[in-house]
């Protein structure tokens, strides 16, 4: 197994990264998977629209609590999955030792995951579908 500890990152850690975290946990129960935000809404639950998307797939992420990314989490992770090229650059500039283990979730399709925060349920549903698809693309590599 190449990766034991996986960190999924977005901005607020209430929409995209928790959805990806819970998909990956479902697919890979033996791995340690966490999520965090670059400017996290610390202490908040996942966005209700994100929770709704996951409930449709019978995945319960109501227990999710947002947390801030930090050096310890970056060191802990064998693989860091981000939502955009900008987030990847930000992490590599802030923590240069992370270079080589930061990839976009949509890496295999060369895609970013747009932020659904404060958009409608339809936008969340599409984001959720994309995240699910990109998480599955990683399956062969984990």
UniProtKB/TrEMBL annotation:
<feature type="active site">
    <location>
        <position position="16"/>
    </location>
</feature>
<protein>
    <recommendedName>
        <fullName>protein-tyrosine-phosphatase</fullName>
        <ecNumber>3.1.3.48</ecNumber>
    </recommendedName>
</protein>
<dbReference type="InterPro" id="IPR017867">
    <property type="entry name" value="Tyr_phospatase_low_mol_wt"/>
</dbReference>
<dbReference type="InterPro" id="IPR023485">
    <property type="entry name" value="Ptyr_pPase"/>
</dbReference>
<comment type="similarity">
    <text>Belongs to the low molecular weight phosphotyrosine protein phosphatase family.</text>
</comment>
<feature type="domain" description="Phosphotyrosine protein phosphatase I">
    <location>
        <begin position="4"/>
        <end position="141"/>
    </location>
</feature>
<dbReference type="Pfam" id="PF01451">
    <property type="entry name" value="LMWPc"/>
</dbReference>
<dbReference type="InterPro" id="IPR050438">
    <property type="entry name" value="LMW_PTPase"/>
</dbReference>
<keyword id="KW-0378">Hydrolase</keyword>
<feature type="active site" description="Nucleophile">
    <location>
        <position position="10"/>
    </location>
</feature>
<dbReference type="InterPro" id="IPR036196">
    <property type="entry name" value="Ptyr_pPase_sf"/>
</dbReference>
<feature type="active site" description="Proton donor">
    <location>
        <position position="115"/>
    </location>
</feature>
<dbReference type="GO" id="GO:0004725">
    <property type="term" value="F:protein tyrosine phosphatase activity"/>
</dbReference>
<keyword id="KW-0904">Protein phosphatase</keyword>
């Amino acid at each position: 197994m190449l990766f034991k500890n996986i960190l999924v990152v977005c901005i607020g850690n209430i929409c995209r990264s928790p959805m990806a975290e819970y998909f990956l946990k479902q697919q890979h129960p033996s791995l340690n998977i966490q999520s965090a935000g670059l400017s996290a809404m610390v202490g908040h639950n996942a966005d209700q629209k994100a929770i709704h998307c996951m409930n449709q797939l019978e995945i319960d992420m109501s227990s999710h609590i947002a947390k801030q990314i930090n050096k310890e989490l970056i060191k802990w992770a064998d693989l860091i999955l981000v939502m955009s090229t900008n987030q990847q650059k930000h992490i590599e500039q802030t923590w240069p030792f992370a270079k080589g283990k930061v990839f976009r979730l949509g890496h295999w399709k060369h895609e970013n995951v747009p932020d659904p925060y404060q958009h409608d349920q339809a936008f969340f549903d599409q984001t959720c579908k994309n995240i699910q698809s990109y998480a599955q693309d990683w399956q062969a590599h984990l």
